[in-house]
Every structure is written in C-alpha cells, then in structure tokens.
Design goal:
Blueprint lengths: L17 E4 L2 E2 L7 E5 L3 E5 L4 E2 L3 E8 L7 E11 L23 E2 L5 H5 L5 E6 L2 H6 L8 E2 L6 E8 L5 E7 L1
Parallel strand pairs: 1-7
Antiparallel strand pairs: 2-5, 3-4, 3-6, 6-7, 8-10, 9-11, 11-12
Length: 171
C-alpha cells in the first residue's frame, strides 16, 4: 500500500491591471511577493517601491513543502506621462466702458496656446491652485476679473488618460 498526499497551491493576492499618471507605488500584499519575472524570477520588489515605466509584474508564492507547490498571478502597470506645460503668454484685454480695470473675459481664447495643439487636452480655469488640482469650481465664461492684474490657475487634463498638469495664466 502507499499514501497519496496532495499539497494545495498557496493563496496569493491577485492585483488588477492598473493605469497611473507618471508613477505607481506598489501596495502591500497579504499573500505572495512581487517579482519582475515569472516563477519568482527577476528582481524582487516590495510594497512602497515606485514603478515609473509600464511593465508586467508577477505575484508569486510557494509552499516550501516536498513537493513544492507554487502559485502566480501577473498584472500590467501602465504609466501615462503627464506632459510638461509652459506658461502661456500674458493675456491683455481692453477695459470695458467703465474704466475700472475690470472686464468680462473669455479665457478660453487661450486654450489653443495652452493645449499646445493637443486635441486630447481639456483646459479649465480656476481662482486658486487647490481648486485647479482638485477640479473644483471651474470658472464660468465669460468671467469678470476681480482685480487687475489677476492670476488664474489652469488645469490641463488628458481626456484619454485622465492625467493632468497645472500652470498659470496672468491677466
């Protein structure tokens, strides 16, 4: 007679494919370890490591028993690069009939210069850098400036990747 022993494959985490802007920080795993190649090969990576180029990573674990059983999951990390924006030219407009330095302005006349010809970029304008970073309270057009000169904060978002950058526009 003989005994048959069946070892179970180890449990591993199965991260989903991820898309990120500029970089991605590896989260902690409950089960398994990160590797750059299949079967626990390549370079081992740790939670907190920053990935800055698109790649496929592997989560791998083995039982360390005789017979050694293993389990593996691969996932793709896509890194989208945020374009660097230059500062647009100063916007100069004529005062309206009341000579107070305030006027209704359609800031969208600067969109093409800010967009740099990239039709995938969406441009929006804000009064504060925090609003531009969080895309909260975009200015309605036409906008009446509140001081002269005035600085606007511009958010340029890639409509395909969702990545964004900010710059300023001076009036």
């Amino acid at each position: 007679s003989f005994d048959i022993m069946i070892n179970s494959n180890p449990t591993i985490d199965t991260p989903a494919d991820v898309s990120s802007c500029d970089s991605y920080t590896l989260p902690a795993l409950t089960n398994g370890s990160y590797f750059t190649a299949s079967n626990g090969g390549g370079t081992p990576l740790s939670a907190g490591d920053v990935i800055s180029t698109s790649t496929t990573l592997f989560v791998y674990a083995e039982t360390a028993t005789t017979t050694n059983c293993s389990n593996e999951h691969s996932f793709d990390i896509t890194i989208n690069t945020t374009s660097a924006l230059g500062n647009p030219n100063i916007l100069v407009v004529c005062d309206d009939v009341i000579l107070d330095g305030l006027s209704q302005i359609d800031l969208t006349i600067m969109d093409e210069e800010i967009r740099g010809g990239n039709s995938n970029y969406s441009v929006s304008y804000y009064e504060t850098p925090m609003e531009a970073d969080s895309a909260v309270n975009p200015l309605s057009m036409p906008y009446t400036n509140t001081i002269n000169p005035q600085t606007f904060f511009v958010r340029v978002e890639d409509t395909i990747t969702g990545c964004f950058a900010t710059t300023t526009l001076n009036l």
